[in-house]
Amino acid sequence: MTKATPSKKATRRPTCKNPACKKRFTTTVTTAKYCSTRCGDAKRNIRKKVDPLEKALKSAFFYYIAGECLRANTLEILQGHTLETLCELHEVYKSNMKWNGYGGSNSYELSHIAPVKGHGRVGMLFAENLVSAPKALNRAHGNKHYGFGRSIQRLTLNPKYSVDKRWNSPSEVVQMVISYLGKELVLAVIKACKIKPAQRSQLVEWIIAHYDPANSRHLIALGDLSQVHDLKTQQLKHVKAAMLDEEAGEYFASPAAHPAIVLCNELTRLSANRPELEIYAYALDEALTTQDDDYSLFSKHHEQMLFDVLHGKSIAVMADTLEMVIGENTSYRFVTYSSNANGEYRYHPDAWDYLSNGQIGGGATLHKTSLAAFKASISARAANVATLAQCLHNALPAAVFDPWGYEVEQPPF
Q: What stretch of H or E contains 200?
C-alpha cells in the first residue's frame, strides 16, 4: 500500500506592506501582507498625521468667523488681531455656546456693540465689541450704537478683502480668513485654544460614510439621509449610536442659562474695557446671590437696562438705573406680627426655618421681597406717620394769650 504524498502549497513572494520595510518575503499564506508580526503591528500603529490647518478648516469657531466676515462683506473686521485677542474672541464664543446649553438652545447671540452695518463704520470682530445677549433683545436693537466697542471706517476698506455670500461659500471664506490672518498665527491659535474639528462635522461625515438605506436599523435611526445636515450635535450622536445598535440613552436638550447669569457675567467681562462698570458688576453679582439661584426678582425690564449698559450707554446716564436694578435684585426677608401694633420684629428672618408658626405665634408672617421694595415701604410708612402727626397738630386748638403775653385757658364755649 503506497502512502499518499501531501500536495505542496503554492508559495508567494509578495512585498511587505509596511512602508518602513517593503522587503520581498516568501509565504504560503494567500492573505499575508507583512513579512513579520513586528511589521504588521508597526503598520497598524502608524497614526495618520493630520495637517493642523485641517482643524481650522473644519472647526466651528473658524466657520463662525467666516460667517461674520460674510455678514460684514469684508475680512477687514479681523484687522489687527493677535494671538491674545483671538484667544479672547474664542473664549467669548465658547461662553456663548455654554449659555445656550451647548446646542440645546439658541436663546443667546453674540451681539455687536459697534454694529456691523453701522453708519459709515463697520463693527469689528473682537471680544471687546461683542456681548452675549438674549436673542430677542439683539434683534430688536438693530444698528443702534450708544458708544464704545471697536469699528473701522467704511471708506478705508480695501476691495481686495471683500467677500459676499452670493459668490463666496463659507468654506472658501474660512480659507481666505486663514490666508488673511496668516498661517503662523492660525496655527498658534489652534494650539493655544486647543481647537479641534467640530464634533458635529465629524458625526455628519461618519453618518454619510456609513449610512446604508438597505439596513433597517439605519432607516429607523434616520429615515432620510438628507436630514442629517439639519440635526444638532446631540441628535447626531443618537443617530450614530442607533446605527451601531448601541445604547445612547434618551435625548434631552440642555437648558439655556438664565439671563441674570449671562448679563451679570458680561458686565464683569466688559468692565476690563470699561473700569467704571466694575463696582456695579460686583454689586449685581452680590445681589443675585441673595436670590438662591431662582432669580425670581430679575425681570424683562432689568434685562433691557443691562443690555443698554453693555451696548455702550454711559454710566453718567445709567448710574441711577443700575443702582435701581441692583436694589431690585437684592432679596430681603422680614417678619411681621398681627398682634404687634407697632410691627416690630420678634425673630430674625433667618430663624424662620427653625421655628414653626405655632412656636412663633402672634400671627407671624414671613415676607420675601426686594431690598428696594422694602425701603420704599419704610419710606411710605414714615411719610404716613409724618402726615398723621401734621394732621393732629392742625387739629389742636390755637393758643390764646392775654395782653401781657401769657397763655390763658380758653373758655369751654
A: helix 199-210
- Angstrom distance (rounded) from CA 34 to CA 16: 5
Residue ranges per structural domain of the chain? 12-46, 53-193, 202-243, 259-329, 332-395
Contact 200, 60 (CB under 8 A): yes
Determine which helix (DSSP H) or strand (DSSP E) holds 385, and give its type and residue range: helix 371-395
Number of other residues whose CB lies within 10 A of the CB of residue 210: 12
State the angle between helix axes of 60-72 and 170-181 in degrees (0 to 180), rounded to the nearest 10: 90
The model's pTM is 0.71
For every residue of 23-63, DSSP letters joined together read -B--BS-TT---SSHHHHHHHHTPPPP--HHHHHHT-HHHH
pLDDT < 70 regions, the chain: 1-9, 43-52, 55, 247-253, 337-364, 378-413
CA 91 to chain centre: 10
Q: Are 366 and 349 in contact (CB under 8 A)?
A: yes
What is the C-alpha separation between 71 and 93, in angstroms, rounded? 17
Q: How many CA atoms lie within 13 A of 20 on its CB side?
A: 10
Q: Which amino acid is at 181?
A: L
Could you report the per-residue pLDDT of 366-400, keeping only the tens digit for each?
Answer: 778 888 877 777 655 544 545 545 554 454 455 55
